Amino acid sequence: MISVEEALDKVLSYVEVLEPERKPILDCLGQVLAEDVYSDIDIPPLDNSAMNGYALRAEDTRSASESSPRYLVVVGYVAAGSMPAQEVKPGTAIRIMTGAPLPEGADTVVRFEDTDEVKRKSSGDDLSQIGILCQAERGSNVRGRGEDIAKGNLILKKGNLLRPQEIGVLASLGHSTALIIRRPVVAILATGDELIGVDQPLAPGKIHDSNTYTIAAEVSRYGGIPKILGIGRDSVRSLTEKINKGLDADMLITSGGVSKGDYDIVKDVLTEHGEVGFWTVCMKPGKPLAFGVIKKAEGGEKKVPHLGLPGNPVSSMVTFEQFARPAILKMMGKKILAKPVIRAIIEDDVVDTDGRRLFVRVSVTKHGGQYYASVTGPQGSGILTSMVKANGLAVIPENSEGVKAGHLVEVQMLDWGEG
Hints:
By secondary structure, the protein is of the alpha/beta class. The protein contains eight helices and 25 strands. The chain is elongated.
């Protein structure tokens, strides 16, 4: 039986960052950029107005105030998306809209609110002349050419995570696609004669297959592409047939068949068709956990990493979080593989009777700047609703004999995002 850290190191040593692919930028959200992105344009491409107002020369507003306006001749109008037809000369101004290019000769934009435009409109006066009601500083309300992005600069680095803001920058550069690390395909196989499909009526001794859907949802949540293989029965032939259908994936995850029961034969199939890295981990829930690689049956030298999760639904979820999730993230080129961790005051006694590291389902709340973790009821590995009530896993170190209520514990936050 090996430690959680040893098991994770072993899993991660068998997976590599996947190759890149080019995708439409909206399909790249949450993925890792596989190339440096340089700009071949300036953004904005020209000096332009940051406000609706009047483009003018700052020196023509010297000493202007509401009680002593400076009057300028309005010689034109420029809208966003069009180019100015006139230039600003001393004593003149051009009416301008937000985003419109700054006319030649202008160095400042004065907002409508700082002119007498409203008064002129209400009294029926034309706008051939405008009164400026404040002294403007040179460059006020002007966005300079290239102030956001300068032509030739490195804008996004290889390895950057593409969030909505990075997608927006790519679009502003005129990129409709991006080269990103592709998402891993993860084959999923539930095992056991007791399992039936979710749309089948229950018969005596049977249960609906929930693990397939839980694992597939987790694979999707962390960026992978689930490939559902169905249910493998408790025979070497059935399991071998199903597993072979998943060997074109980047990773194979099975649930069930890895403990010491008479029909727990997944690790036997793994041994026959590949190699076993380990099959028990010092943790609870989740001690029976098989990991290794399976060789593709027909030709080639491809070896598919295989993670054999326990059959109990909570054990399956907890071990997925500790081992499958980091492997998926690594394959996608992500750097942060660990769950966000906080320190919280445990509100219940937790007993550890067999020296394994405990992952206790807890509900975390915050009061007065301090986190508190409350155990979500009975902790049996078959009580999936205990995960429904949880937003964290309190980690109780092995050989600790547990913790008393009121002590500080580390908690992995299940629902906080990773970078």
